[in-house]
Every structure is written in structure tokens, then in C-alpha cells.
## 1
Amino acid sequence: MTNKLRSKFGRGDVGVLSRRTLHGGYIRVDELVLRHRLFGGGESGEVRRELIVRPRGVGILLYDPMRREAVLVRQFRVGMIDEERSPWMLELVAGMVDGDEDPLQVARRESREESDMDPVKVIQICDYYNSPGVGNERITLFCGQVDASAAGGIHGLAAENEDIEVVVVPYGDLVAAVESGLINNAMTIIAVQWLQLHESELDRLFGDSA
């Protein structure tokens, strides 16, 4: 990796002057006052930012390489409430990491809860930050090998008000849905584009996984 891809600044180049929680409900919001180093030299003035504080998240693309079908889920998402097309989003199985949980185990658990599928093998795709301009949510993406012929139904935990429809999507339709904008959330788009790059070598990748 070339030096140009690495920042010359690190965590020590930011000074947090104060931090307090403004809201601690379903979504936690902190207010920070900070200073940071500048590319041109010196230090910034006081910068005030609101930060959405979220646990680490996981998403898993459930895929059947033999049938070339993905198992996605559809559910209501409040962030889509103003979306004219529909607030019901087609997306990956996903969930939140609780404390020191292993993200891989969370991905397997969420697969069972949201789709009633138990992946045979799982590959890690990547880590990324969902919206670092306003939040600290870090996402770990996986791809899990499943038998899509057994997929279907309505799932989720009633205690968490989950009402989740399982949707089986052929590979060609999956790619077309991303290209047309029908699939319009970052987690699913990233996973599908990874699949486009690696679908021909899934047998090897799954063979190397646990």
C-alpha cells in the first residue's frame, strides 16, 4: 500500500475539549467540542459536532452458489418513511453486536432469527463505517453459503416488533436491482458488488472458510 493512501494524522491529532450526551433513547446522540490538526499546519478552532453513537453492526449476504440465488429480507424501515416508492426495504439480514459478541456469531444468529437459514460456511467481506460524518457505526459484512431452495416465509422476533419477509432473488435480478436503484441501501449494494467480483471463485473462498 502506498503512503498516499495512509493519513499522516492519527487519533492523537484530535483533542476532545468536552463531550456530553444530549439524548440517550433508542438512538444516543453525543455533543463533542474538539480541535484537530490542519493539513496546512497549525490547529483548527473549536469545532462543535453532534455524534450518533451506535453499536457495531453486521450484515450477511446469504447466497446459494449452486442455484445462483441470494436470500434477502424485506421489512419496514423508519428512515425510509418519506420514500415515495415504499418504506419497506429489500436488504441483507443484519443486526447489532451486543458488547463483546463475535460479529461472525451475530451474523449466524441474525440469519436464523430473520430468515430461518443457518449458513454452512461464512466469508468475511469487509468492514466499513456507515456514515462517519455524523455517526460512529461500524459495519462488518459477511457472505454465507445457504440452500436457497429452503428459503421463504415471514420471520423475526415479535418482542422486537420484527415483521420480516424472506425474498429469494436470482443472481441476474440481484445485480439488475442494484443497477436500477431498486436496491438502494449501502450494505446490500456493497455486498452485491463484492459478489460480482468474486462469484466465480466462491467455491474456493467457501472452501477456505469455517
Note: The mean pLDDT is 94.
## 2
Amino acid sequence: MGKPLRRRLKPEARKLEIVEAAERLLQAGGARVRVEDVVREAGVAKGTFFLYFPTLDDLLATIRTRIVSEFDTVNPLPTEVDGPVDWPELVESQALAFIEFTLSRRGIGEAVFHSDFAERRPLADHAIHRLTAVIRAGQEAEAFGPVDPEPTARLLYASIHEAADAVAAGVERMAMQAALQSLLRRTLSP
């Protein structure tokens, strides 16, 4: 008896199958995942992998784009058009959402943000641009003080990221979150 027939999928479905297989492996094993592991997990030939992703870095870039987009979709930024925005609360809730999101995708995050791949293909400062935009909007609404938005966003992002790393390393979560919320309020208060 021969191999079971492989079901035919449209190209986008096959590509997604490879991406999802890689995400499962990355979540479990971090940056140690190889192309061979992905093709085995996805049940595809190596040639099929390379048809969609010329290199492993191309696959990792696709995954990174997916998770950044997922965060933005799950945690949309409101506008004043939607009604009054509590800007300090928004910054705090976005920071806590980032911590939760980071912790839930620890292995993937290690592979796409903190590995050799991330050094070879740095990500534009998406999170910093997002936080800068929130600070500017909060300043326009007179909810934040006169800080320089971009450098402040960089420093706050570093604090938020460190909070996520500390919680992942075992630091008591509620204490870390409370300290982070206090830092955010003090930094941005009018």
C-alpha cells in the first residue's frame, strides 16, 4: 500500500498550514525550530515549504507580521470619534494587554523578536510608533503632560517589555503590574 494521498489545498491554505505548523513548534521550542521540523509538522515536502518561503527567515517574518497584526486587531486603539477616551486608562490597559499577549506567545516571541533572525531582520518600531501616537493623542486631549512623545514612548515600551520579561521569569505579576501602572501614570500625568 502506498502513501495516503495528500489533500489538495489552494496555495493560500497550504501556506497557512505551514505557518500554523511553524507557530505550534515555535511556541513549544522557541528559536530552535528548523525547516525540517516545520515540514514534518505541516506534513509537506521541503520543496513545498520553499515554494512559499524561500528561507526560514521569510517564514519567521510572516509569523512576526501575523502576531503584530493579531495584537493590533485584538487591542484596537479607540478614537475620540468613538466617544471620550480615558487616555491614562488606555495606556495602562494596552500595557497590560501587551504583557498578557507576550506571555501567551513566549516561544514565538523569542523566535521572532529576540533571536538571530530579529538581528538580521529588525522590525520597524511598530509598538513605539503606536505608543507615540497614543501619547500625542492624549496630549491633544490634555490628558497627558508635556513630554516628548517619541523618546517617552521608547522608555515606556522598554519598561512594559521588561515587566513582561520579569513576569515570565517568575516575578510576582500583580506587584509588577501595579508598579508599571504607577510608572505610566507618573510619567504621563499633566
Note: The domain at 60-188 is CATH 1.10.357 (Tetracycline Repressor; domain 2).
## 3
Amino acid sequence: MTSTKYLVCLVARAFGYNRKNTHMAEAAEETHLLKEAESHLGKAMWENVEGIEALTVEYWNLRKLVKEHDRVAAELESQQKQLAEAHEERASLLGISTEPYQHLLDERQMVLNSLEELARQRDLIVVKAQEIRRAYDGTKTKEEVLTNEGMSDERDFSVITHRLTDLKTQFAELRAERQDVMKKIADRDIKVNTIDSEILELKRERRMKASEAFQHIGDANQEISTLRAELGVMDTQMRQLYTEIGKYVSRNTKDSECRKASKEMQWLVEVMGALRKSILFNHKLSGQ
């Protein structure tokens, strides 16, 4: 929304023509676009922000994550190649198709995909729990300092006590959620092992020499699942860092280092500035 359109909408609202829901929807859509733009900008120019002191943590974390991401991606490619070779070896040993137990292979892959998703859930829970723990420690320290300093405003202490109780409750809920996820992971691990045993038994019955090749397939699939889960977690962390960098640079256009870092993406910075202005206008028109 441009300034001119905003003024027109203000005039229209003065005459009773108010599209509150429309403005709220537009603001929500533009906010989503802005976040996407922040992530895209950060990804495109993060290597240029080494000299920006405010982004030191994000830059060096990204340096570390990118290197680790490349390593895991290369390992994943290697494992996939080994898996393909193991499949060829197994087919050669058996001299027949995998049809008799293909349904088990499909079921096994579904379980592994589920394990991959559960691993991501577990890692996100751990991150949330760590954040709550830090907040709890900070609040607890605040309570101790105020007590030692003799500042006994009961209203302040009531707020602190309520905050500590709320953080404990959140932490307990996350712990229970993590335990539930870990149980599901354990159950699926058992399911994978059960499927592996069934497949191995079928293979022994058909050709004993194929057992070693199939074990390689099982190991490779397990490793591939683990590596994909690792990449998923790193992708999430990198997107968050890209977004923080893009947000900071696009909001500090007067800073010479920011302008220098985003020089080739200046068009996007300008678009983001227009989006922020439009979001503000839509919020005002919707009464927020």
C-alpha cells in the first residue's frame, strides 16, 4: 500500500467505508512476504556482513553451519551411492526381483521417514527447553538480587513468582512432550528392527549369500535417515540466521556497512522498506 492509497482509505473510512478484515488480511500476507524476503536477503549476502559488529554471532554461526552442512551433504551423497551399489550387489546375488518383500521395504522406508520427522521434533523441543531454562535462571537471579538488596515490593515479587511458576510449567510440558517423542522413536526403532529381521529371514530363505549385501542396505538407509535429519535441523537453523541478518541489514539502511554489504541486493531492501510501510498502513487502517 502506497502513501496515496493510505490517504484514500483514510478518507473512505471517514465516510463509513471501512474494510478492516481486508486490511488485516493484507497485513498478514505482507508480513509473510517480508519474512521470506528477510531470509532471502540474508542468504544472498550473509558472506558480506563479517565487518558488521552487531551480526558477528550470526555470521560466525553461519560459517560454522555452512561448513558442517557441506560435510554432511557430501557424506549423504556418499551413502546414497553406497546404497545404490548395495542394491545392485543384492540384485546380482539373488538373480531375481525384490518383489516378494518390496512391501516390507516400502513399510521400512515409511517408518524411517517418520523417525526423521520425530528427530526434528525432538531437536526443536530441546531448543525450546534450553530457552525456557535460560529465562528461568535469569528470573531466579533477579529474585535473588532483589531479595539481597532489600527491595520487598510484594507486587514485583508476585510477578516474579508467577513468571517462575509459568516457566516451570512450560518446562514440564516440554519434558513430557520430549519423553513422548522419545518413546515414539524407540517404538519405531523396534519396528525397523522387526522389519529388518523379517526381510533378512526372507532373503535367507531365498539366497543365503544375499544377507551381507542386504545388511549394507539396512545400514546405509539408517545412516541416510540420520544424515537427512541432521540436514533438516541445520537448514532450520541457517534459515533463522539468514532471517536475522536480512532483518538487521534491511532495517539499518543508513549504516554504511549495511549499505555496502547489501549493495547488489539494494532493490530488495527497497522493496522490503515499502512492505514495512504498507504493513504499518494496513495495521492502522484495521485498528491494530
Note: The radius of gyration is 27 Å.
## 4
Amino acid sequence: MSGQASVGLRIEERAGGKVGFVTIDNSAKLNALSSPVMLDFVAKVDACGADPDMRAMVVTGAGSRAFIGGADIAEMAGLDPAKARAFITRVHGCCAAVRRCPIPVIARVNGHCYGAGMELAAACDMRIAGMSARFGMPEVKLGIPSVVEAAVLPQLVGWGRTRELLLLGETYPAGECADWGFVERVVADEALDAEIDKVLASLLACGPNAIRLQKELITRWETQPLPQAVATGIDTFARAYESKEPGRMMAHFLKEQAERKARTGKN
């Protein structure tokens, strides 16, 4: 880990395509989101998402102590109303970059995940946490409300849990957050990377175009009433056939099925 705050981007070539790993490294402050870090993060996420060969992205924090410990309190302490608006808009910008990214984004949660960090995790498509991870929205204990992508929390954990998180400002272990539905998977800390690899392997086995269409559709569903969501799904299904991917993958599936039947004599 470097002594200066930075955001790293590492690209790995895997069977099935490229995977981007975006790492927030501000270890002196539990990987807190300062303005320079946030601007760098958005640039790295956008660059990764713009690569047509990229299949998935993993967002994490450097070291084992924190995913993201929150927004930079030292910077927030000196804000006035105008600067506060600009600062929190940058926090939203990080979350928006993840949500508009055309590929699945996985939050690899290691250690503390508070405030802006929990909002960024909420913006990701999936959250996989080590057992020692802890989550919370402590802004009210610092004299400010939780805002921007905290608005996503009711969709993930319901209104009651959201009120508890935002009004009490307490912290919770990963297992409890998994019970709420905020975290999809919790594993032993030493198994975190192996679990990430397992999820990536599943994603890479799917159709690249289908995955991009699916993420786009899920994002649109979040703000659409049911009849419109169904109509959007029909349009997206038709768009899938603008590429040769469905025909190719279904032909492969049918061939494997026929070969299996020939070997076993069973359907």
C-alpha cells in the first residue's frame, strides 16, 4: 500500500474475457473518500466500463482494515453549504459511475464499510463480504444526514431496517447484514478472494451481450412501474437477437444435450 491516497486499476485476462479490479488505497484514513480519490475513482470505473472486452469489475479497498471507512471527515469538517453540495455530489458521482457501468460490478468488502462506503457498496450489483466486515451509516453521529445512494437501501433491506441504519447510526456485522439482504455472500476472510473468483467464473460463463443487457434491464426496472418494466423486458429480449449470441449459445447447449443423451440413453 502506498502512503498517498490513490485508486488503482488492474486488468486481468481470464478464461472468458477481461476483469477489472478497482482498488481504493487511502489506508491512512481507512480508504476514506476524499475529493481527489473520488474523481480518480470515477475516471477509473468509466475507463474500465468503456472497454468492450471487459466482462466484470471488482471494487475493493486496499489492505484488510477497510473497504471504505466513509467520506473524508477532515475534508467535510471545513465545508460550507455550497462546498457541501459539491462534495456530496462527488460522492453520488462515484455511486452513479458504478450504476451506469455496463458490466456487473462486485463489491469485495473487507473490513469497515461505513457511510459513503456502504452507499457505494449498495450501488454495486453484488456484495461479497469477509466475516470480519462491519457495516453502518453513522452520519447522524457527525451532525449530517445520510443522503444520495442511501436512497437505494430500502430496495435492499426494506424501510424498517433503513430507518434503523440511518436514525441510530450503529454498526452491524456482515452476517446480520446478510440476513437483512444487503450482502449476498459472507465467507471467512481468508476465503474472500476465492469466493470472488467463483462468482467471476459464473459471470464469465454467461453470454457477454446477455449480461450487459441484463444489467441495463435491472437498472431500468428499479424506476419503472410493472407494466412498463414488462414492456421494457420484451424490447430487451428482442434486442438480444440483434447479435448472434443467442443462436450460438443455444446451438451449443442443444449439441451438448444431444451428446449427453447419446451417451446415457436418457433425456
Note: Residues 81-100 form the longest helix (20 residues).
